Amino acid sequence: MALMDGPLRWRKVGGPNAVDVEAARSRSQRLTADCSRLLSQVDKTSQHLQQDAKQTLEQRVRDIRFLREELERRLEEVLEEIDALVAFKTRVERALEACSDPLRVTLLCLDERTKRAPVEQACDEVERELLREMEVFEGVASLLQRTLEQIIEQIRLNRSAKYHLEKDLKNKFQAQSIDDSCTLMTNHSLNPNHRPKDLPLSPPPSMAVSPEEWEGLSGINISRAEQEKANSASLRVLVDSLLEQTACDMRSQLQATASAFQRKIQETKTVKAQMEEHLARVQCELTSQKRNMEALGVAVAEKEIPLSVAQARLSARAQRPGTELCHDPAQARLLVEVQELTAYINKMRKAAALSATAQQSLVRCQLELEDNLEVKANSLYVDEVLCGQYREPTVIHHF
């Protein structure tokens, strides 16, 4: 009766009964066990997560390092290509400068040849070659100027690719440094007082780039660098061929013009020599004609004396008286003498007039020949001396 009174008395006073105590103790034990298992699970999971995160970071570092190596290789190639293009730019600039003097000489030659006599200013072979030479030189200069602009633009594109590669490399370097430091972090390496708090559980908008997009952006920079490198290499091959061809074209045209000058000079010298020979003959003939005219004058003067004698005889015999004034043989002979002498004198005077006309014609020929010789000498001086002096230093070297 006393034993049964205990639980009743516990319920009456409001205290816990044995069942409740046992249940509370059992729950506590289960909670302790659950907490122990939870702690063990959390510890294992934390270690596993931390190890996975470290391995992922290490893989990320390897990925970044691989891309950095690719970017650095492309950057080195782009830098080499920029240096090569800058060297070609210098070659083209020097080639442009080398075009200015030959073009100036060509224009000087054209200007000097306008100072020749009007009769010599026909569009001859030399004039055509000089005009063609001017056209070639101006065309080469224009082509080189356009090529220089293309090189400058390609250098700009190469430097733009270089800028993006360097920017990407800088970002990759910073990211690798951060991830390297993250792989070195441990549970004991952080200062508890400086642990970050309230980190966002979702990535910020600035990190809205997938790994594929991240790799693709570097791929774009690499592809762009490869494309610009290929374009630059093609341009260098084209420019090298262009410089060689333009130099060859200019040398060929210079040679063609020089050959035309030589032929023209030789032709002028030949014509001038022929004119000098004709002039010498004309002068010789003019001297001969002067002597002939002098001889005719002397002969006329000499024959006028016998004519005067014959005429005086006839005049004297006309004074004969009466029947003595007959037409005897002497009279007839005197008349024949006067007639023949008069005829010869008239012939000599006519010959003298013709000789004077011939002399005038020869003098005109002499003056014309002398004028033409002066014209040829001036043309020869312009082509051989002036243009020769201008063109002698002109040499087209390899660009």
UniProtKB/TrEMBL annotation:
It is found in: Cytoplasm, Cytoskeleton, Cilium axoneme; Cytoplasm, Cytoskeleton, Flagellum axoneme. One of its GO terms (cellular component) is axoneme. Residues 54-88, 265-292 form a coiled coil. Signal peptide: none annotated. It comes from the Eukaryota. Pfam families: Tektin. Its main location: cytoplasm. Keywords: Cell projection, Cilium, Coiled coil, Cytoplasm, Cytoskeleton, Flagellum. InterPro entries: Tektin-like, Tektins. The keyword Cell membrane does not apply. GO terms for biological process: cilium assembly; cilium movement involved in cell motility. Belongs to the tektin family. PANTHER family: TEKTIN (PTHR19960), TEKTIN-1 (PTHR19960:SF25). Microtubule inner protein component of sperm flagellar doublet microtubules. Microtubule inner protein (MIP) part of the dynein-decorated doublet microtubules (DMTs) in cilia and flagellar axoneme. Forms filamentous polymers in the walls of ciliary and flagellar microtubules. This is Tektin. It comes from Merluccius polli (Benguela hake). The gene is Tekt1.
